[in-house]
Amino acid sequence: MAQTWLVVGLGNPGPDYARTRHNIGQLALAEVERRAGATPKRHGRADALVAESRIIGGPKVVTAFPTSWMNRSGGPVAKLMDWYGVDPEHVIVLHDELDLPLGTVRLKQGGGHGGHNGMRDIIAARGGDVLRVRLGVGRPPGRQDPADFVLKPFAKAEQDEADLLVQLGADAVERIIADGFAEAQQRIHAPS
């Protein structure tokens, strides 16, 4: 039987954060769920909203949005990995990335947290071998504090690019599950 996949979209809970740069991972996860016709429900054992589906007729996929604060994502992810019996190489984490220009998607397996507190907590709870869909939100202008920058919504002039980034993030998840990580990475990172 095919291995179950766990796809996690990082973000902060509540309407004040719903459309911020920091929640782009959760926005892309919502698009994955929309495409799969999945409806998330509160998980009884993990602090997360979870849905089960199949993406493109493939293996079982569990999508999850931790309802804890971003910097406490590790506990819910670890509990879900245990509950569903998912190995780290079948966990995909969608998250914002300051070090990539707005609209850029990059895939990564393992490695450090790069200053991302959600990834820091996941690595502390489960190690760093998970697959990552890094969604570029760009650097703050001037001397703006990066923490303030990611907690603000996209500017009106950036909204079309942010909407496209959500689509590209969902595409990346589908490609990883359908084609495998290495092939997905090669296609997504290829120059256009």
Automatic annotation (TrEMBL):
Gene3D superfamilies: Peptidyl-tRNA hydrolase
Marked site (Discriminates between blocked and unblocked aminoacyl-tRNA) residue numbers: 12
PROSITE patterns referenced in this protein's UniProt entry, alphabetically: PEPT_TRNA_HYDROL_2
Keywords: Cytoplasm, Hydrolase, RNA-binding, tRNA-binding
InterPro entries tied to this protein: Pept_tRNA_hydro (IPR001328), Pept_tRNA_hydro_CS (IPR018171), Pept_tRNA_hydro_sf (IPR036416)
Annotated Gene Ontology cellular component terms: cytoplasm
Catalytic activity as recorded in UniProt: an N-acyl-L-alpha-aminoacyl-tRNA + H2O = an N-acyl-L-amino acid + a tRNA + H(+)
EC id: 3.1.1.29
Residues annotated to bind tRNA: 17, 71, 117
Protein's GO biological process: protein quality control for misfolded or incompletely synthesized proteins; rescue of stalled ribosome
SUPFAM superfamilies documented for this protein: Peptidyl-tRNA hydrolase-like
Localization, UniProt: Cytoplasm
GO molecular function: peptidyl-tRNA hydrolase activity; tRNA binding
Sites marked Stabilizes the basic form of H active site to accept a proton: 96
Membrane-spanning parts: none
Pfam families from the UniProt entry: Pept_tRNA_hydro
Active site: 22
UniProt family annotation: Belongs to the PTH family.
Oligomeric and partner information: Monomer.
Function comment: Catalyzes the release of premature peptidyl moieties from peptidyl-tRNA molecules trapped in stalled 50S ribosomal subunits, and thus maintains levels of free tRNAs and 50S ribosomes. Hydrolyzes ribosome-free peptidyl-tRNAs (with 1 or more amino acids incorporated), which drop off the ribosome during protein synthesis, or as a result of ribosome stalling.
Protein name per its UniProtKB record: Peptidyl-tRNA hydrolase
Gene behind the chain: pth
